[in-house]
UspA domain-containing protein
Amino acid sequence: MPSAATVYASSSVVDSARRAQEQNTNKLLGRALQVCKERKVEAETLISDGDPKEMICQAVEQIHPDLVVVGSRGLSKFRRAFLGSVSDYVAHHARCPVLIARPRK
């Protein structure tokens, strides 16, 4: 029986990757906030660790937003049913209106 390959990364590599991810996230959210500001839309961003579905719904309970906007990766019906969908989960569980932004074709 073949054994599974295991890869271990040093903590410095993991920390470096995490810092890079945080920088990219902050840059992206900064651009999103700028677009909202230019259009006179009040917006707030939040970065959390954990299952995105649960984290978004928990944030809704804490922040009480007027609207949550989530993206959609455009999964097929089969993949969405098999893998689940953050946007579908949030749309059905968040206690506020949810706008699902679909990718451009």
